[in-house]
């Protein structure tokens, strides 16, 4: 089983709203990732967690706030977003952050529209 | 991580083999070659990866040249459902952060 589950699949939010995207995996993976994908562009890395600690922040604006409450869950808290933040947000996981041939598995994504 | 170069688009007839090339001339000795694909509106799907040797699984085959500067993903009998964007990625497999950095990819269209 290589399943990463993301909720909600679609989210529409106003610029003053606070919302969260959720991600869950039960593969025993200890590294989890958030990617952002704009239309017709490749995914871009945002954050990486390893053993529930933030390891990489790719200079993401503070209106995006990640959280890893336990080894199976990853959240992305959203506040004061702009319309240009509308995108597909992808969660992914891998067994560990390093290690040889460590495959990263993706969820189906959450489509976010900011109005 | 090394950069990759892929053709922006390719066509393939249904039932024929699809051969997708990738150049990674600056690849380092500890970097793996990974292939993912993304079908419209879905998350990227892992296909296959390799370091030096050719690899085969139920989805595809990966052929890596001896100097490791290029590789080819082979879908042996393409179907309409293989229409997708295919990403070739090289990344450090150990001793470093497990970053997966996507390039522009190849848009493969399989037609009847």
Structure description:
The complex is a heterodimer of chains A (115) and B (112). Chain A is 0% helix and 56% strand. Chain A is built from no helices and 11 strands. Chain A has strands spanning 4-7, 10-13, 18-25, 31-37, 44-50, 53-57, 64-70, 73-79, 87-94, 105-106, 110-114. In chain A, strands 2, 4, 5, 6, 9, 10 and 11 form a 7-stranded mixed β-sheet that branches. A 4-stranded antiparallel β-sheet of chain A has the order 1-3-8-7, with no helix packed on it. The termini of chain A are far apart. With 112 residues, chain B is mostly beta strands. Helix content of chain B is 0%, strand content 46%. Chain B contains no helices and 9 strands. In chain B, strand 5 and strand 6 form a beta hairpin. Chain B is globular. Classes of the chains: A mainly beta (115), B mainly beta (112). At the A-B interface, strand 5, strand 9 and strand 10 of A face strand 3 and strand 4 of B.
